[in-house]
Amino acid sequence: MAKRIIEDTAVETSSGNVFADLGLPDAEKLKIKSGLVIEITKAVRKLGLTQDAAASRMGIPQPKVSGMLRGDFSNLSERKLMDCLNRLGYDIEIKVKPALEPVGHLTLAVG
What we know:
mainly alpha; 434 Repressor (Amino-terminal Domain); 5 helices
């Protein structure tokens, strides 16, 4: 990451993954999961669901919905989050292709 000084404050340019910037383990997985949670949150709001209704529709307990909507998704797998999006009426497409580098990357594209 590039560092520069702006008005006497050291500023670092993000890598594009805040979890990696913070040095957290499994940063790419956290980025994917957080993207899925953002989409779930948007879907719940768009559909006008209460937490109870969202929980019933997604097949998870209401306290997990509450936690998820507050940003706590540590107890939910990527697969479960994808299942939640499916149950909210979203299609999930996984695309696999050869990597340009020796080790590939996970990417979430929303559209």
